[in-house]
Amino acid sequence: MRHIYGWCLFVAGVICRREELPEHGRLASARARRLATALDRYLERKTDLPRKLYGRLAELAGFFDGLKLYDEGDYGNAGLAWTQSMLVRMGRKPRLIHTPLPADIQVAQLFELLGRQYARLGDWELASECFAGTLLYGGRSRRSTIRAISSQAIACELMAGNAEGARNWFDLMPDRITHRAGQVFRDIVDQLLTTDVELDVDVASKVSQVRSMSAVTYAYLTVVIAERLVAENRSGHALALLLEARGELRAEQADGYLNGSLTQAAAGIYSSMNDHETALRLAVSAWSSIDEQRYLACSHRQRHQIWSRFGHARYVALRASVEMGDARAVAELIESSRLQSLIATEIETNHDEKDGLRSAGETVAAATGENGREQPDDVMVSSAIFAAMNDGLATTLLESYAPVTYRGTSLFPVTNHHSIAGATSVSRALDDALPEGLFWSTHVENGVMFWFLAGDGEPIGCGMTDLSRTENVTPVLLGLAGHSDSAEPETWSLPPYQHQAGDYYEPYLHLAAWMSPEEQIISHTIGALLPDALVDLLRTADAPLEVTIAAAREFGCVPWPIAVVPGTQDRLIEHAVLRMWTSAPTQLSRRSRPQPPAGTPIPFLLACDNPDGTLRERTAISPVSSARTLLGGPDSAVPATKDTLMSTLHEIGPGTPGLFYYRGHAVHDSDPAWSTLPLTEGFVQAGELFGTLDDGTPFLPMPSRVMVTGCSSSGGSLLAGEGLGLAAGLIQAGATQVVSTAIDIMDTSFTEAFEDLLIKGMLAPGTDHAVLLRAAQLRMLREWKIYSLRGGFDHREDIKDPHPIIWTAYHAY
């Protein structure tokens, strides 16, 4: 009999698949891991298998590979493998996508695994949909299984705040249930969905009995009960239930994300009781437990979902630190909150698996009416399948930051995550990274701006500002964000806002004229963000102060140079040399490099100008034409292909004294790893800037000085600057001084003239790029005032005047 080994693998796989999967810990047994390896090797080696055998083995391989990948923390590819297994099975058995759906225990099991994965990642809506798939295909599953799955679906809907979805599930439950835990669960949910009467504490206190249904049900239901009790001013009862559940699940070593949810809720209660020390300790514990999932392989969408789920822990930790006056802790927490963590250059998705999944899904896609075909009336395919498929194909790996220490201590434990690129120690001392002069960092959570201020590395103060009391702040910030797609206001944490008549601020129109009413509102509003301690120092200084700003993501589009310093009519750039912060690891990486001797010449080594040919051509007298190597568009003498760019940069070498200049359309993606700088052929991907070759050389080595601008010829929203993680990547790749645009800028005559001015300055030996930029911006400030007094701008398509929407967008990193 041919392929007898393949059939033996199939039988072994069927038997092994019947093993009950554990509720906690590793999913794959030693036998399952061996089978996964054997199936992969056999399918890779055998290319002439009969279609029937290949389909069955591919289905099993997807299932067991998913278990193994899940245990390795590669959630994106685990979901991809399970989706592949499901699609292969549906391709072999088309009846599975036609209503009424037949029972199929294998598909039900795959949906359950996907549901467990999405519950772990905090995507409760999708988890509930996956659990629905389990029940639809479960057929005559054991009653205990049905109870466990349906209870998890309801608990997830409640966690998501979807009372209607929970009610739909609840209505499918019988009025009386003989199973004791099931009846307790039903009674509790019935009360939670009845909002016009207080929750019966006697009923709620029985929540521990639902533990037999599932750990997810127990943990999530306890959190929802606690939130309800707190809203009813019964925090003591809520805290008792949370601590009981937390203790029980910790004793049985339940998955950390469940304990994290319970701990986060408990921290919030301690904070409301003004027990800030306990609140801080628990909030940091919850923060660490839930945030850990972000540093495993998953999609950007999943990563952001996780980030949003522990916002309350971040808020409680920061608030407790401020209430205790612990500036050291505030500094550490804000630095740990920065989302611009480095992105690994290795994209985790297996591309062969991508192709296989696409092939496996062709039958299902055709049957569901994809690709323009008419959809049969009886076809039913869960959207969760395609969501899992998209998440798997978009999987990247986010490198975890090493724990931040400041003044010799850290709130966070040292973890076993991979350290960021270039890390040489288990922790990063913020003391060593902080710049000379003033350092002001901010983070916004739950509508509150938390801030920390240091001088020459020593704490000066910390505090919090309720932004709901700062007039016009939300409409102004939203208006500024309208010029940058990378701002992503949907991810912000500003206070709730309802649009009012007149709340319209358009930077191109309203910043055109100095001292116009709208310009004053915008400039004074962003100036009001400056804390009093910083304002006092700015106003009393005899000379301009060095100020490094670590801005919250909500402030990424703020034109800081023209912010009005409170109590004056002066602009911030008149009182300070401004620099923008990237992260402690990036700063330490830059400081660790040897600096060239003073007076070392700075040649113009490389310019990559308008590589895709979509921007206006520069004038012949531009200093860009003097670059030693000039890469241009498709019709230029040397087109900027990726191979040409890489070979030129490697000839230059990392940190070599000299200037590299890039001007082009930056293309934004919601996942920063996929954001790109286009070339004539190909593109530079953001993650590539952090990569290294086997010998440690940066994948894209940068000379000592770099200037990168992202232009938009239409004035639309693209991407440039720190939103892409670009500045941090350039520094990591060897640059010492980086000037980059923070928002999308328009491609105009003035833009070219201003950049030419900066390029000439960047080529001068001994130049400090922040001092150079300040001088240029002060000149533009004066000219802006003059143009405004002479009648202002005429709003032509090509801007030739010093419009601040352009010159304030350039930052020194």
Overview of this structure, please?
It is a single chain. This protein is 46% helix and 10% strand. The protein is an alpha/beta fold and 813 residues long. Among the domains are: 433-585, no CATH class; 598-767, Rossmann fold (3-Layer(aba) Sandwich). Strands 8, 9, 10, 13, 14, 15 and 16 form a 7-stranded mixed β-sheet that branches. A 5-stranded mixed β-sheet has the order 5-4-3-6-7, with helices on both faces. Strands 1-2 form a two-stranded parallel ribbon. A hairpin with a 2-residue loop joins β4 (448-455) and β5. α7 runs antiparallel to α8 (163-170). The protein is globular. The N and C termini lie far apart (68 Å).
Short recap of the structure:
InterPro entries: CHAT_dom. The chain is α/β, with parallel strands linked by helices and 813 residues long.
Number of strands: 16
For the record, the CATH architecture of the domain at 598-767 stands as 3-Layer(aba) Sandwich
Largest sheet: 7 strands, mixed
The percent range for helix content is: 40-55%
The CATH class of the domain at 598-767 turns out to be Alpha Beta
Shape: globular
The average pLDDT score comes to 87
Strand content range: 5-15%
For the CA atoms, what is the radius of gyration?
Answer: 29 Å
CATH topology (fold) name of the domain at 598-767:
Rossmann fold
Unreliable spans: 340-371, 414-426, 712-724
Helix/strand structural class: alpha/beta
Task: Determine the number of helices (DSSP H or I, runs of at least 4 residues).
Answer: 32
Compute the separation of the termini in Å: 68 Å
Domain CHAT: 539-811
Organism: Saccharothrix texasensis
Pfam families: CHAT
Protein name: CHAT domain-containing protein
